[in-house]
Specification:
The chain has seven helices and six strands, in the order αββαββαβααβαα. With 168 residues, it is an alpha+beta fold. The protein has one domain: Spore Coat Polysaccharide Biosynthesis Protein SpsA, Chain A (Alpha-Beta Complex), CATH 3.90.550. Strands 1, 2, 3, 4, 5 and 6 form a six-stranded mixed β-sheet that branches.
Length: 168
């Protein structure tokens, strides 16, 4: 089973439980800070129009560029910046399960940058409202084998071109 299939299985398992309100996205090599889940739950409960919530992240790991990365907070800024970079950090994301159910959100298998591609599809559909919390709630591990370190501009252009055309 590939990564996209495993992520889709996780989505489906969560969605099969009718009481699940939120789905938290995480990678095995990243770390959620102790207050991440409670902070995001409170934010989503107080902001019922937000469907996908991320946060700033602490970078850590083998590489020397350990720092905090801040992402745009408001939906329109996130949408605009998605053309240039993935303006949500996938291991920091919490999604509203009802919206995932309604829209049938699924990762595409056999593609590079499946997270970025999925978030672009969600945001350009205009059926999802994104937000980022300014506080760092997740530690994002960086190393030379990160998939984000190995993709090319050509990889990105395969799914960014339709996004750009949709903006025009």
């Amino acid at each position: 089973m590939g990564l996209a299939e495993a992520l889709n299985l996780g989505f489906q398992m969560a969605l099969d439980m009718p009481d699940v309100k939120y789905i938290a996205r995480m990678d095995a090599d990243d770390i959620s800070l102790p207050y991440r889940i409670s902070t995001q739950l409170l934010y989503l409960d107080l902001h019922p129009t937000i469907d996908l919530l991320g946060s700033s992240v602490f970078l850590f790991g083998e590489r020397k560029d350990q720092k905090v990365i801040h992402y745009p907070g408001q939906h329109q800024l996130i949408k605009y910046n998605m053309l240039y970079f993935c303006s949500v950090a996938h291991p920091s994301l919490m999604l509203r399960a009802s919206r995932v159910r309604e829209e049938g959100v699924r990762y595409e298998s056999g593609v590079k940058m499946e997270d970025y591609r999925l978030w672009l599809e969600c945001i350009q559909s205009d059926k999802f409202i994104f937000s980022n919390i300014g506080s760092a709630l997740t530690k994002l591990r960086k190393h030379d084998k990160n998939k984000s370190s190995t993709h090319t501009t050509e990889d990105e252009s395969l799914f960014k071109l339709p996004y750009l055309l949709n903006l025009i």
